[in-house]
Amino acid sequence: MSAPQPVTYASAGVDTEAGDKAVELMKDAVRATHGPQVLGGVGGFAGLYDAAALTAYRRPLLATSTDGVGTKVAIAQALDVHDTIGFDLVGMVVDDIVVVGARPLFMTDYIACGKVVPERIAGIVRGIAAACAAAGTALVGGETAEHPGLLGPDEYDVAGAATGVVEADELLGPERVRAGDVLVALASSGLHSNGYSLVRRVVQVAGWGLERHVDELGRTLGEELLEPTRVYAADCLALVEQFGPDRVHVFSHVTGGGLAANVARVLPPGLVADVDRASWVLPPVFSLVQGLGSVPWGDLENTLNLGVGMVAVVSAEVADDVQRAAAQRGVPAWRLGTVRERRDDDGTAADVVAGTKGVQGGAVRLHGTYRVG
C-alpha cells in the first residue's frame, strides 16, 4: 500500500504567501490614513491609537458601529472591479457614528474570501483606505481570511468597525429635536449599499446584463450599480462645527429600511416629520428599478434611499444656510420637510411610519407624489 500524499495548508487551499503579498501591496494606502496618533504601523496583532487627546474632553463619549455592504459585493465580483467597494463599507460604518455628532477616530476591516488574490485584496483595501482618508479616519488594522470550500475562488465579503468620540454635552439626538425643526436632505450618490437583493432580482427577472448601456443613466447598468456610496462624515461634522449642536440637532443615515423608517428613529415620541415626496426629483436609477420590476412604490421606498442618503434635522432659522453650506461642500441639499406635534389622525394614516428598528420614537408622514427624473 503506497504512502498517502502529505496534506499541507497549501493543498487545503490556503496560500499564506499570497496573503503576505496582499499586505505588501496595500500597506502604503493604509499608512496614508495614519496621523501621529497611530502607533506601530501595519502588520501588528493590534492597531494602536494614542487617545491622549481625549483627556482634553470634559466628558468624552465613545461611539462605535459595525457593518458590511451586503450583496453589492456580487456586482463588484461580476465586474471584477474591487477598488470602489471600500467607499460603501466605510460609508455604512462611519456615517452611522456621525449621526450623533461623533468624530470617527479609527476603523478596522475584515475580508473573508475563497482564495487570496493579492491584487484583488489590495484593491479592496486601497478603496477602504481612500474612503477613510476622505472621512478623516485612520485605518489601523484589518484581517484577511481565506475560506476555501466555504467561499468560491472569486467570492469574498467585507465588514468593518469604527470608533469615534463626541463631547457628552454636544451629543446629537432626538432630545434636541423640537416642533418646527426642518429636515434638510443631503443627496445620495445612487443606490449606496442597501436593497441590492431587490435590485439584483429585478435585473435578473428582466434579463438585463450588467454590460447593457442604459440611455437614461448615461452609462452601463453595471457602472451605475457599482457607484460608490457618498461618505458624509466630514460634511456632517463640518455642519455641526459651523452651526453648533444647538442648531444642528441630529442626523439620520438613510440605509436599510428607507427614508421614513430611518428618520423616525431620530425623532422623539410625540413628534412627526411631514416629508414631501415632491420636494426632489427621483434619480433615474430608482425609477428604472421600479419600472423594470413593476416594484410597488411602497416596497421601493421601504427598501431604497430614493436619492436621500443623509438627513439633517436643524432649527428652522438655519435651514437655508445649512443647505448652502452643504452645496458649497459639493453635496446637493434641499428642504425635505418639517417636524410638528403628532395629531390623533396620524395614527390611522397609511403613509405614517413609526416604531421601526425596535425604536419607539417619533414618526414620519409621507405625502405627495414622487417626481420622476
TrEMBL record:
Record carries keyword Transmembrane: no
Residue ranges annotated for the PurM-like C-terminal domain, each copy included: 178-344
Matching InterPro entries: PurM-like_C_dom, PurM-like_C_sf, PurM-like_N, PurM-like_N_sf, PurM_cligase
EC number: 6.3.3.1
Main location (coarse class): cytoplasm
Span of domain PurM-like N-terminal: 50-166
Gene3D superfamilies: PurM-like C-terminal domain, PurM-like, N-terminal domain
Reactions that this protein is recorded to catalyse: 2-formamido-N(1)-(5-O-phospho-beta-D-ribosyl)acetamidine + ATP = 5-amino-1-(5-phospho-beta-D-ribosyl)imidazole + ADP + phosphate + H(+)
Keywords: ATP-binding, Cytoplasm, Ligase, Nucleotide-binding, Purine biosynthesis
Cellular localization per UniProt: Cytoplasm
Pathway recorded for this protein: Purine metabolism; IMP biosynthesis via de novo pathway; 5-amino-1-(5-phospho-D-ribosyl)imidazole from N(2)-formyl-N(1)-(5-phospho-D-ribosyl)glycinamide: step 2/2
One Gene Ontology term from the biological process aspect of the record: adenine biosynthetic process
Single GO MF annotation: phosphoribosylamine-glycine ligase activity
Record-level GO cellular component terms: cytosol
Protein name: Phosphoribosylformylglycinamidine cyclo-ligase
GN (gene name): purM
